[in-house]
């Protein structure tokens, strides 16, 4: 059953399926993840990947790899640059987590491309966002694999713009997790305001429906309607150890 979920998710990634269309955005399939990149914001609309228990084990045994943030050299569309983040007060936040890509030298290199990066508040990035990222790894080990979708949400642009390219700073970030076991599919979502207010994972947890309403992205449209309706309308913190 768990292997079946992994096969379904990898097939969906291989055909470059889309959760939501935003004008000018393009799907880019990298070694370990897929993004829908928006040249207007110079950020991903979303990032998508499947993390397996094997990936977690491999990355845990891989030596530290130096970070090197840079534009995707194979992409001709407008991208952010290091100057956009320099002295901006915002950190370079990975959507597809860098640690989750350490199983492949190419995958971790690609995770540092600005096509996978958004401006994040440092407190949020190192607080609840980091805790959710660690939860993803625990879930991948427990269920053999987990399907992760995450990205920025722009509402009223309260955080303004940064850098010479005037990157809009997201108001929120979301992350959704999907697993399958002998009882069926289970999903949970997290919604994190992009500010320095302390937040716990339990406080950030919500239904996928809520994330979809704010992001305008139909996250699990590839699932049968009844399954999609059920898993997106409820979330049980106990399943996830919250």
Q: Which SSEs are present, and which pair or pack?
A:
Layout: H1 2-14, E1 26-29, E2 34-38, E3 43-52, H2 53-60, H3 82-85, E4 91-94, H4 105-111, E5 117-120, H5 122-126, H6 128-143, E6 145-153, E7 161-162, E8 167-168, E9 172-181, E10 184-193, H7 201-204, E11 205-206, H8 208-215, H9 225-233
Describe the structure.
By secondary structure, the protein is an alpha+beta fold. It has one domain: Extracellular Endonuclease, subunit A (Extracellular Endonuclease, Chain A), CATH 3.40.570. The chain has 9 helices and 11 strands. The strands form 3 sheets. It has a 7-stranded antiparallel beta sheet, with helices on both faces. A hairpin with a 4-residue loop joins β7 and β8. The chain starts with a helix and ends in a 9-residue tail after the last helix. The N terminus is likely disordered.
Largest sheet: 7 strands, antiparallel
How many structural domains? 1
Distance between the ends: 24 Å
Cα-atom Rg, whole angstroms? 17 Å
In N-to-C order, the SSE pattern is HEEEHHEHEHHEEEEEHEHH
In DSSP terms (H or I, runs of 4 or more residues), the helix count works out at 9
CATH topology: Extracellular Endonuclease, Chain A
Q: How large a portion of the residues is in β-strands, by DSSP E? A: 25-35%
**Silhouette:** globular
Structural class of the secondary structure composition? alpha+beta
- What proportion of the residues is helical, as a percent range? 25-40%
The CATH C-level name is Alpha Beta
Overall strand count: 11
Report the uncertain regions.
1-21
**Would you identify the CATH H-level superfamily?**
Extracellular Endonuclease, subunit A
Q: What strand line-up does the widest sheet have?
A: 1-2-3-6-9-10-11
Looking at the overall shape, the CATH architecture is: 3-Layer(aba) Sandwich
Averaging pLDDT over every residue, what do you get? 90
